[in-house]
Design a protein that fits this description.
Elements: E1 8-12, H1 17-28, E2 32-37, H2 40-53, E3 59-63, H3 71-79, E4 85-88, H4 104-132, E5 135-140, H5 153-172, E6 178-185, H6 192-196, H7 201-207, H8 216-227, E7 237-240, E8 245-247, E9 250-251
Helix pairs in contact: 1-2, 1-8, 4-5
The protein binds NADP nicotinamide-adenine-dinucleotide phosphate.
Length: about 260
């Protein structure tokens, strides 16, 4: 039996990368989707790709910044305060400079998106899940939540914060039929590096050159596997890297 059929899933950051791949994966399982991101055109593209493959999918697009103060009331009205699955995915890294050389504006954007908005979304949705007696939350962490690397002070700090928050959440929801899970990828070839290097395509391409990175679909497949476990099983966390990556700072690149 398909365990995910007719479940409602809220996916943040569904306009590209991992979130988009997850939207397609959950559509293939018959979920009803609430897809959130800022770029309306890209979100509509996700919707089109889903409907081309799975025409009966129910999709609501939410064009919004995760930090918009009006978002909680918008989501409450749209979902009727019922969300079965939260894929708390929207996030970013900005810049790769040393602490004293990096921009405070970039720090604020990373802390706001990766920490504040991520935590607030759980604060919003968790009471709905507790009331309905069931729910699944997957937080997007990173290997940067487990390791640190020079040039990544604030990004690493935000993902360490996600890891700590997720662990506390798991303790607090124990026995309440809420499965709190986390996935921590290494290098995934998405728009992540393009965003980090602010549109500098050559710096972004260099990140994945002469090695085989993960793709959004790899992460979506793993998250879908987590969700499809029997209800008494929680996969607490998946840490996953490309075979060509040993740690955030160790990458095997084939010479050309
Ligand atoms: N790629 C990697 O190597 C990697 C590794 C480990 C962890 N991660 C984590 O995976 C998650 C997804 O990243 P990705 O690799 O799929 O990158 P991506 O392709 O750049 O996707 C990021 C998504 O987040 C959305 N987003 C960013 N800021 C937002 C905001 N303020 N409000 C609403 N939506 C926002 C973007 O949509 P809009 O721009 O349209 O708003 C986009 O859909 C992030 O949390 C990232 O930290 C990525």
């Amino acid at each position: 039996m398909n365990k995910l059929q007719n479940k409602s899933a809220l996916i943040t950051g569904a306009s590209s990368g991992i979130g988009k791949a997850m939207a397609l994966s959950l559509a293939s399982r018959g979920c009803n989707l609430y897809l959130l991101a800022r770029r309306e055109g890209m979100l509509k593209l996700t919707e089109k790709e889903i409907l081309d493959l799975y025409p009966t999918t129910k999709i609501h697009l939410i064009v919004s910044d995760v930090l918009d103060p009006a978002l909680p009331s918008k989501l409450a009205a749209l979902t009727g305060e019922k969300v079965d699955i939260l894929i708390n995915n929207a996030g970013l890294a900005l810049g790769k400079d040393r602490v004293e050389e990096s921009s405070l504006q970039d720090w604020d954007a990373m802390i706001g998106t990766n920490i504040t908005a991520n935590f607030r979304l759980v604060h919003l949705v968790l009471p709905w899940m507790l009331k309905s007696g069931e729910g699944d939350i997957i937080n997007l962490c990173s290997v940067a939540g487990h390791y640190t690397y020079s040039g990544g002070a604030v990004y690493c700090a935000t993902k360490h914060a996600v890891k700590a928050f997720t662990r506390v959440l798991r303790e607090e929801t124990c026995g309440k039929n809420i499965r709190v899970m986390q996935i921590s990828p290494g290098m995934v070839d998405t728009e992540f590096s393009k965003v980090r290097f602010k549109g500098d395509e050559s710096s972004a391409d260099a990140v994945y050159s002469h090695m085989t990175p993960l793709h959004g679909e790899d992460i979506a497949r793993m998250m879908t596997f987590m969700l499809e476990q029997p209800r008494h099983v929680v996969i607490d966390e998946i840490i996953t890297m490309p075979t060509d990556q040993g740690s955030p700072t160790t990458v095997s690149r084939k010479s050309v």
